[in-house]
Amino acid sequence: MSRLSPLADRVRPTNFDEIAGQSHLFGEKGVLRRMVTRGVIPSMIFFGPPGCGKTTAASIIANQCGKTLHKLNATTASLQDIRDVAKDTESMFSTDGVVLYLDEIQYFNKKQQQSILEYLEDGRITLIASTTENPYYYIYDALLSRCSVFEFKHVEPEAIEKRIMQVTSKEFPEVVLTQDAVTKIANASAGDVRRALTMLEVAISSADPGESSKVLIDGEQVGGLIPSISQSNFDRDGDVHYDLLSGLQKSIRGSDPNAAVFYLARLLEGGDLISPCRRLMVIASEDVGAAYPMAPVIVKACIDSARELGLPEARIPLGNAAVILATAPKSNTTHLAYDAAAADIRSGRGSELPVNLRSPLFKGYKYPHDYPNRWVDQQYLPDDLKDRKYYEFGDNKTEQAAKIYWENIKGKEL
To answer: Among candidates 346, 50, 66, 54, which has minimal Cα distance to 198?
Structure first.
């Protein structure tokens, strides 16, 4: 491979032992390693974040099984490209079978994915497809049922450090990396080996060789290459970003302030201010609700401050909001009441209001302020829903106090 090629491509592993991380797949007891060793290679779908070894693994598998490998990317490939790969199976040079590696398969529509089925069923093609998205959302059932799904995970910093040292020793013997430099590259790569090797290559190419035969790269030099915005791996329009927001809400709902602050930091360090602000406002009413009625007011004040300040200072009021919500009592009674009422409306019930609520006469309506304790017993719900109970008092202090108050006023248990 040309020296001008990116470092990550030049040093791509050629066997399972060289793959960084993914021990659950390629370690001594890894499931894929055992399958390939036994000569078993079904059609497969690899899913996981970028730079975790999916493409490399496909190449190694095809090579170890003695099969011809064709690579296509679904962002640019067409049905004709699939047909051309199938034609290769008719060649005398492909008697051991063909492996089609289809990257970013989520960009193939249903018709394109279905076009692959006939070649899988008659054995002409073994498919290895990869995606950074959840395959159960983006790949159609007919194709999914014919493939084994394997998850690739973010590579741990320790494994990336080891790979950095291996590559440096082999490709750049004149370079000396301090441990601080190696650690910073590994941590900044966010589990992406390709990103780590790219950073290594940039650090080496920008280093000052000086008069010594050795080139020293320390943590300070590497730090200058790392942007202040975290490279935590999420796409604002993709599953990872949604999962971070979901993690924020579930942590607050579960009253875990430590996890709440962590997920908030992941979002803010990734440069996203708007999404966590919106989610915190939802949480204040959905998960805290009537248990602490001031929560929406406090959170709105924190969010207004955050938007006025901008990042990085916005982290301070938003961190305050996240901790307050996580440690506040919880109740979902009010939005459950609304959902129950909305379900009745969608089913066609409650279309006719009681006479005492209808204009222009409001016949029989009793004005509560004219009665003791500003309450009088009368019907408000439509006749077909008059005995319906949507709201149930929560067991928190605030709602229980309200329950006791109204039981005393109304003279009956609510």
So the answer is: 50
